[in-house]
Amino acid sequence: MRFKSLCIAAAGAALLTTAATVPAPAEAQEQYIPLLVYKSGPYAPNGIPIAQGWEDYLTLINERDGGVGGVKLVWEECDTGYNNDRGVECYERLKRDTAAGIQPLSTGITYALIDRATQDKIPLFTSGYGRTSAAYGPVFPYVFSAPLTYWSGADVITQYIADQEGGSLEGKKIALVYHDSAYGKEPIATLERLAEEEGFELFLFPVAHPGLEQKATWLQIGRQIRPDWVAMWGWGVMNSTAVKEAAAVGYPMDRFIGIWWSGSEPDVIPAGADASGYKALSFHAPGEDYEVLQDVVEYVYGGDAEAAREAAWGQVLYNRGIFLMAMQVEAIRAAQAIHGEGETLTGEQIRDGWEALTLTEETLASLGMDGFTKPVAITCEDHEGGGQAFVQQWDGESWNIISDWYMPRRGPLKEAYKADALAYAAEKGITPRTCE
Amino acid sequence: MLYREAGQFKTSYAADQSLFPIAQDKWGVLLLLAFAAFAVPMLASEYMLNSILVPFLVFSLAAIGLNILTGYCGQLSLGTGGFMACGAFFAYKLTIAFPEIHIVAIFLLSGLGTAFVGILFGIPSLRIKGFYLAVATLAAQFFLVWMFNKFGWWTNYSPSGVISAPPREVIPGVVVTGTSGTPEAKYLFLLVFVALLALLAKNLVRSRIGRTWMAIRDMDIAAEIIGIRPMFAKLSAFAVSSFFIGISGALWAFCYTGSVEALAFEINRSFQVLFMIIIGGLGSILGSFLGAAFIVLLPLALSNGMLAVDPTISVALVAHIEFMIFGALIVFFLIVEPHGLARLWNLAKEKLRLWPFPY
Question: For the complex shown, is ipTM > 0.90?
Fold first, then answer.
């Protein structure tokens, strides 16, 4: 018996020593893209379609165009489970000098990676999430948050509400239901500023991870405070729970607006018919009628649209995956234009591509994204790129665009980015670079 | 024969009471330390240092802290995450407010602050025991994390409630916090720091105060009758334990992740450390290290191992298989040896004393 347990201990020790095998380096004329995904854990239903969109777009570029400027794209995945510690571990496991950039797909992981990626000279692409003030390029040269940040999202939501209320928010009550983490807290400062400027009253309702317990929150919203509008910063299972609880207290769905991470199929389908009328922001169109999506069916799924649909093709988060990866591929293309076409570039060189990234209506059309999203132009100082957002609504069957594109009022926002970024720089002892 | 003790005579009390009475143990530990200090930084890759050894060392310290309280003094605690958060946020506030204080002093001060908080939350232990106390320390866990999350002052009003470690030097030119420090510098700093604190802990539990803790653990009423003051024993265990856990929390935020939100110290963190000492061995400093190794390294070894065997395997499948094997191994080890890995090591040593001629 005792010898047996010794053998077991020895086997355990042997297993431990097999840790940390390093994968083989990428070959020449291949551009390596590390992918941090989460296909396990409480947020997997949202993580899976995005990762699928990423991979399908990369496959499409390789199959249809033979890569970017002749350079094949290769990628490797690591499952973070939306867990910050594992995210850091995955980053360390996948990082290489030739990594074209990393999308952490989680605000918490982004915070943990900003300094590391800057140190390692790998661009960090946090589209519509992450640290908002990282959009200020002089302090955060390696972080890109195009096309919008949470603060501009909060601004768009108030603009939309003001339009619905006949132009003024004076005396209105707006509640914010948010995931009580770095992610959910991001918009608070902006909403507080807007509340002061526009004269509405703001109520804050934090919801603890993973967001299944919202009974008390919604009883207070539905029965006591009765706000005119509710905004939500939720993710994963928190969203569908919120929609169900809102319906249970009889809160009108068409006055309930989620941020772009709270407006996809997994959020509304579990809530069933109750979810009809629920609104959310987005910065790219839902649906299937775009050339790029048809190309995916043709080149990736061999024309089998049913197989594509099974892989979430055409769903909001899948489309987002396509959009996010398209931005990253275009940044590689822009970097090749600067540092040499058809060559494997380092993360540092691709960063220059990011700062030169300009997507006009024409380039978007040439990518098969006509009407899919709005132009973006990133500069050294502005890593947000001036994107726009619209409001979409769930009709019980699909998401539909119900508003015009809104341009966030970026004047005061940029001031706020700069102030927060400079405070960070002072804390860290960073000297902001000059943008000439 | 490896552990043959023939000829090892002790001729003084000091030799008899030394930390490692068997010569092989002493040389083994010294060799291990020398290997860890000189060979590992040269041999190990950046990934190995940054994502495996650094968290392993930080967690070892947390496990030592909890082991003092739970393993040596018998006070069940689920507040580890909260105390780690205390250490992290205290260290952040201190180093931002007083940038001129040396980083080691910052860590020790944040440990002392956490020790004070630990005493406060240890007061219920004077009246209640066992599972009831575990529930009382849960209050610490939830209250502390809530407090750091709720009040912007702790994060210098960062809009998202995240603190991020400023770069600090341990000796001029060698940055060990934040992300600008090299992995080797961080690893060596942690190695020295954790080894010294582990030595301190080892000596503490062998001293008079450690004996009072163990007396309280084994039978508190008997301990009281022979003259041990339960109040002092229990509160000192809470203080010392929180001191270690607080420092490990500060190291977690400063040397490992570099930036951290209060959510990183949720109840799961408490469970993680509790599992470490249960699997490693309650009431054993060595067990704290073994347990931390098991909990930190095994999941990574499993997922890396599976991907090394077959790189085309889906990462989702790997993640799920990892959970299953990891869970099964915990159950398996606890069935095979409920007293933890440290006990297995002791058994191995006893066998090796007689090997190859057992009687």
Answer: no
